[in-house]
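WARN  no MSA supplied for this record, continuing single-sequence
INFO  ligand: protoporphyrin IX containing FE
INFO  echoing inputs
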Amino acid sequence: MSALPDGHVRVWDRVVRLCHWGLAALVVLDLVRDDGDWWHRLAGYVAVGVVVVRCLWAALHRGPGGWRALTPSIGDTLTYLRGGAPRALGHNPLGLWMVWLLWLLVLLLGLTGWMSRLDAFWGDERVHDLHAWLADTLMVSVALHVGGVAVMSWRWRENLPAAMLSGRKRPQAEARAERGRK
Ligand code: HEM
Ligand code: HEM
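INFO  complex generated
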């Protein structure tokens, strides 16, 4: 993680930020324009591509956006919750489960969207129903994700969406000291 001249640290690199906001825009587009038309299918497949690129990027990098930091752990999650959910510089152990759920749902939507148009499933409503169910689950998950981001932003007096835009955060020691003063 690189320190910047103003004392902040660079947490999210350009690829992570671009993948995040690109994925968010594509998912919203597909949830709104949900008639399965050309744009819907294109946005859905590009969203799948974004998830794949993001995972490859994680495999090639270290730091908060890298693979090690993205590996969820039940032990870490319980320790995090027992410790009163302290501020995390990268993803917090609880939020990490949601990150994987969001990615998994997008991949499954791509798969079921593709399957729903195969001759083998012509007239079979089950694949379509599964696609619709996955989309509903994604919508609820996104709401929980944004809610979680809002709660942690308030709790830590830190604008997490702004950090996902700029890539920068206050270093850990400084954040701890500020919270101690409140
Ligand atoms: C982020 C990815 C995606 C999301 C969030 C999404 C979401 C949705 C939603 C909400 C619906 C309406 C379901 C309903 O009838 O209630 C739908 C329908 C559909 N989607 Fe997707 N989708 C995604 C990706 C894809 C992909 C990659 C394809 C590729 C072929 C696809 C093909 C279709 C088709 C054919 C329909 C059915 C339209 C109809 O006849 O009712 N989707 N999708
Ligand atoms: C459809 C909408 C969205 C999807 C699918 C989505 C998905 C994700 C994913 C996959 C990550 C992990 C990023 C990575 O490591 O590559 C993430 C992180 C994050 N998202 Fe979203 N997101 C969405 C909307 C939003 C919105 C609207 C906001 C702002 C209000 C937001 C704020 C954040 C923040 C701040 C993080 C980093 C969390 C942290 O500090 O640990 N997201 N999101």
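The CA atoms of residues 56 and 82 lie 33 Å apart.
INFO  checksum written, moving to next record
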